[in-house]
User: Which sequence fits this backbone?
């Protein structure tokens, strides 16, 4: 039998070269996917947001607070909240922590989260669409749909699922990565795009691989500015998932 949503788990791993990895700890052993971990600005703590499968089907988002990195490695959770599903009876998921304002403590924090929701059609589940929300004081959750971003993705002929997004800083500017499908639920048609909030434009990205150049089969993008290996300046580290062999194979 194939894997189901409850078979997935989230772990944290360590690497010295981004190629070889050693698992440190399982953070959630059952029905957990699409994790994003962010350090809290001006605070030693960390926030973990991810997609959590429900026993009767569908997914919701869960957010955890760890007081320090050692607690992440020990999976010592200081606080946790399950966010109620909005806009969909089926699934909310692929959370992205776009902004964290700590304001002196967890009970005063304001956490902005991007996510997608699964639409519903007369035939059943429909394509995922974009939304964003705010978790205030780690207890009050409000959200709204994001039709403007959906329209920009549709304008790139990506009318299938609209999924993961990641916001990052580069050269003192805010940027985002998005993923979208040409055809609904066809995993070979995932594309990754770079979004410029200043001009509100989407740029479809082509990936250079050993097999050639391809735009398709890439998804789940992440981006993080990190110190350069030689100790001079910073580099932007981007990761993606390859759903299948690129079209050039």
Assistant:
């Amino acid at each position: 039998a194939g894997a189901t949503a409850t078979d997935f788990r989230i772990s944290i791993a360590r690497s010295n070269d981004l190629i070889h990895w050693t698992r440190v700890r399982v953070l959630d052993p059952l029905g957990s996917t699409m994790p994003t971990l962010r350090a809290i600005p001006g605070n030693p703590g960390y926030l973990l947001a991810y997609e959590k499968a429900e026993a009767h089907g569908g997914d919701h988002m869960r957010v955890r607070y760890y007081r320090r990195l050692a607690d992440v490695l020990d999976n010592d959770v200081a606080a946790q909240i399950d966010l109620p599903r909005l806009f969909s009876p089926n699934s909310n998921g692929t959370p992205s922590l776009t902004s964290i304002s700590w304001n002196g403590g967890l009970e005063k924090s304001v956490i902005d989260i991007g996510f997608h929701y699964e639409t519903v059609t007369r035939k059943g589940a429909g394509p995922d669409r974009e939304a964003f929300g705010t978790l205030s004081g780690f207890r009050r959750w409000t959200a709204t749909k994001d039709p403007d971003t959906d329209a920009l993705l549709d304008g790139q002929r990506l009318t299938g699922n609209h999924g993961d997004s990641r916001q990052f800083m580069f050269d003192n500017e805010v940027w985002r990565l998005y993923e979208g499908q040409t055809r609904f639920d066809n995993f070979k048609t995932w594309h990754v795009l770079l979004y410029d909030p200043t001009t509100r434009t989407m740029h479809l990205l082509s990936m250079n691989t050993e097999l050639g150049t391809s735009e398709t089969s890439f998804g789940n993008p992440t981006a993080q500015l990190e110190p350069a290996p030689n100790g001079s300046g910073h580099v932007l580290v981007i990761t993606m998932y390859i759903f299948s062999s690129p079209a050039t194979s």
Summary: The longest strand covers residues 124-136. The chain has two helices and 18 strands. The mean pLDDT is 92.
